[in-house]
Amino acid sequence: MSRNNDKPMAHDARLVAEALSRRQFLRASTAVGAGGLIASLGLGEYAAAQGSQAGASASGQSGAPAQSRGPGTRPPPPPEPTVSQPPPLKDLKGKVAYVTAASDGIGLGIARAASNAGMKVVIGYRNEDRLKAALPLFKAGNAGVFAVKHDVTDRDGWKSMLDQVIQQYGKLHLVVNNAGIKTLRQASQARFDEWDNAVAVNFTAIYNSVAACLPHMMEHKEGGHFVTTASMGGLLPGVNAGVYTATKIAAVGIMEALRVELETTNIGTGVFCPGGVNTDNYFATGEDNPYHRPGAPQRPSGAPRPTFTSMDPLEAGERVMNGVVNNDLFILSHPEFKPGMQERYDAIMASTPKVETPINPERIANEVRVTRCGIYEREIAHRKVKRASYRST
Amino acid sequence: MSEQDRSPLPPDLDRFALERRRFLAEGSVYGAGILASLGLSRYVVAQNAAPPAGAPAASPRPGAPGAPGANGGPGGRPPLPPEPKVSQAAPLHDLKGKVAYITASSDGIGLGIARAASNAGMKVCIGYRNDERLKAALPLFKKKNAGLLPIKHDVTDRDAWAKTLEQIKSQFGKLHLVVNNAGSKTGKRVSDCPASDWDNAVAVNFTATYNSVAVCLPHMLEHGEGSQIVVTSSMSGLLPGGPLGVYTATKIAVVGLIEALRVELEGTTVGTSAFVPGGVNTDNWVGTGEENPFRAANRPANAPVRRGPSPGMDPLEAGERVMNGVIHNDLFIVTHPEYMPGTQQRFDAMLASEPEEDPASYEARAKGETRVLHAGIYPREIVHRQKPRKSYRSVKV
Fold first, then answer.
1. Do B305 and A346 touch (CB under 8 A)?
2. What separation in angstroms does the CA of A297 have from each of A137, B66, B200?
3. What global pTM score does this model have?
4. ipTM > 0.90, yes or no
5. If chain A, 393 residues long, is cut into consecutive pieces of 10 residues, what is the mean pLDDT of each piece?
6. Which candidate from B238, B259, B305 shows the least CB-CB separation from A237?
7. Residue B259 with chain A: CB contacts under 8 Å
């Protein structure tokens, strides 16, 4: 192929879309700005309302000749947002939440907290007995509760879930990707099916939720929010079970990536990284959870009930809702992990190489858009702002 | 390859028993059932704990009946066994005569790594998919170097991984180094991405590294000579650089997988490294200073044309730095310091997100979490990094 590429090559629509997205990254935009996405959804006017750099519309630029220039001649980065994204879902009352795997455990805690905060709650479940046991835990005076049987790895299932929710409540505002599989397997030992299943549930299901629900959330314009239940294992591989660790680290990463992409829209993003939560404390009744780990030995009758010291699932849920109303990128609840996190980050920073060869200044100029990511500075500033207690939700 | 073909390691090859015992021992968060399911109940006994009541996968939960510490709460668990004092000694400190397999090494960073490995005296297996690229790459290897073996291989194909290993074994006898270099640099956003693109990126950038471990690790443990598993991630694996979320998320994921593997394999003869490069001159076609014709062919219609070399790092230098990371068994092979202040900001944001609460309010809980509050690999890596080290240039022969 000739290197003379001054003229546009033959292209199809998909290539144009790719080119636009890449060009926005390479040329026109900074590390933020989802204007192109909004435009591609036919919601360009919304981008203007957010004051973001939406760029020209897709049709306007698709036929423009490619510009030939060296990397050194890029325009300066456009202004970035000066503060972290304001919470799109500041007021929960009357809004609609969908919590996957909410018939038990942390998911049930989140669903209860959402319901107590005045939201209409859609409970994703797979096991009917668990659901039946969970439903009485919701206060009778709360707004509606609606249950949808849903396997989060099923993409068609996501679509039919959304249809059911829209039919029931009209709109969906909050998706909590809580379903997770605690595969306590080493990555170096896991069978193919174990790995694939963990990736599908802990990682790809989050993508599935965005693919299915984001267009609807953008369209109703009332503000939306995606939260994922990862784990402290997503920030620190304290557990010698790499399948879990790797997929939870992945889940944290996808939520950070989504924040970068959606920061200038009215869709918030957060990742919940809990440490120990009392999921064995069945519905916070103090009883053993009969559904936890089918086949697990039952406590012999008369044996003393074990004591639980970890966090109550309802408290975990309240902390998640607090993270939603504040639009916290990282919803952390277990400060005892902080020193361990610090060690991980210090190890990565200690891996910074000593400069042995002078760095080409052009290289640094060329990388200027990607050597920092503004969402973090803004998140640090956001965290310094006084906030309501989690109990206030 | 079917799921059932993945057999557990023979117990006598289980060199990470110590590590596993540390974590999986009775009363830990894992329960004894996992040990039993791996046929390692004897370690339960060694820990002075009762073996599980014949239960297979299902295990008593900590604090549950049958588990030590039952009735006593988490405080009743046995004390932590001793951890390694220093970071895992470099299993592949001597590269000469060893065998490397680099996926996607007919071009770009992979070619740089393959050339550096070859120059360092390794026998090099070149994973490739495009015959034309391979033909253009082969003359770049010095004639007097040890052998080369090109293998056509799609890293998402698990059967092909098994075949690849067989080919390498029949040609060179053993495999010591796997560099999971194949990557899909999709420009897609997570929020605007067809399902097929997502699935492909996850398969290539994340699961392929798991595939390599599933297929090659048993062989590496069996021959017992030091080995290493490396992945080419990206600075995006430490710091999301732009709204290319599919790339970012999968690259972050694979760094996490390597960290998890270090925890698992620290007590074995297999080292682990994540290579996280910034800008590398992959447009500089095989170091000729010409634009890469294969990239030109794939360039979207309206993307800017790059003439001649980009100012990024030369792929051969990148490769030499990877080999330097291998001989030191660095957990993170960082080559572009200009990204690290931004990376520090990411970590600071995470740390700033920890709520400030009275330690007394979670003291009892933290006691039950003792085993997962820290990962010892990190303090050890910090100490490891403070030791004097060879220049990356010393990798050249």
1. no
2. 26, 8, 41
3. 0.80
4. no
5. 35 38 34 34 30 34 35 60 94 96 93 96 91 87 92 97 97 97 86 95 98 97 97 88 95 97 96 89 56 55 65 93 97 95 95 88 87 94 87 70
6. B259
7. 237, 245, 249, 344
